[in-house]
Design goal:
This protein has 225 residues and is α+β, with helices and mostly antiparallel strands. Helix content is 42%, strand content 25%. It has a five-stranded mixed barrel with strand order 1-3-4-5-6. A hairpin with a 4-residue loop joins strand 5 and strand 6. The protein starts with 9 loop residues before the first strand and ends with a helix.
């Protein structure tokens, strides 16, 4: 998608708390900070493009440039709704990874010079093996995790680009924003798939322990009846 869309050299930058958005991902965003609302209002009447970057510390109300990561995602607005409580709710589409080179403005909101990160990958035998293994593990997670539906696995099955598959799985896994940021910052496709595989195995272990605890509790309750 980044090959089809011309990304401006300077973009408004929206810091997000505890949210990492990946390229090709459609995601909801709620903005409430005055700076953020001003940014979205300006972007909405322009080319609808802006950079989304996660905060390093979500507790900070008004982060400075050093308190946000320097790799994020350029997004475009699909839908925007203003609510009576003063918040603005968006549906955005991720387009491409971007690297922030330099902040140009901080008021009324951040603007920075950015460069799209080109993703180059080859569908080698090793990459195909990593993709198949990640899919198998993701199927197991979907079968065990109450927060994922079968539709998520079907969608993953139909993704044929290794970089996009890794991003999709990372976006849907119940991992921390810092771990998702780690995946976002991993440009090499092989390394990204390996990282996602590690997170998948960890999630499976957590889910299995959860099941075991539930089973033990049920057994103990049955004994007392």
């Amino acid at each position: 998608m980044s090959d089809e869309v011309k990304i401006p050299e300077v973009l408004p930058i929206l810091p997000l708390r505890e949210t990492v958005i990946f390229p090709a991902m459609v995601a909801p965003i709620v903005v409430g900070r005055e700076k953020s609302i001003k940014l979205i209002d300006d972007v909405a009447v322009g080319n609808k493009m802006f950079g989304v970057v996660a905060q390093k510390d979500p507790q900070i109300d008004d982060p400075n440039p050093d308190q946000i990561y320097n790799i994020g995602t350029v997004c475009t607005i699909i839908r925007m709704l203003k609510f009576p409580d003063g918040t603005t709710r968006l549906l955005v589409q991720g387009i491409s990874r971007i690297r922030i080179n330099q902040f140009i403005e901080t008021e009324p909101y951040f603007k920075a010079s950015v460069e799209p990160i080109q993703e180059v990958y080859e569908l080698t035998i090793e990459i195909q093996g990593l993709m198949r293994n990640a899919l198998d593990l993701f199927q197991k997670v979907v079968s065990m995790a109450p927060y994922l539906s079968e539709e998520a696995y079907i969608t993953a099955m139909n993704i044929h680009e290794s970089n996009r598959l890794a991003d999709f799985i990372a976006a849907n896994l119940n991992i921390s924003p810092a771990q998702k940021q780690e995946v976002l910052e991993t440009i090499d496709t092989k390394e990204r798939l390996q990282k996602v595989t590690y997170f998948l195995n960890s999630e499976i272990q957590i889910l299995e322990v959860g099941r075991q605890i539930q089973s033990e509790i049920k057994t103990e309750m049955d004994k007392r009846q």
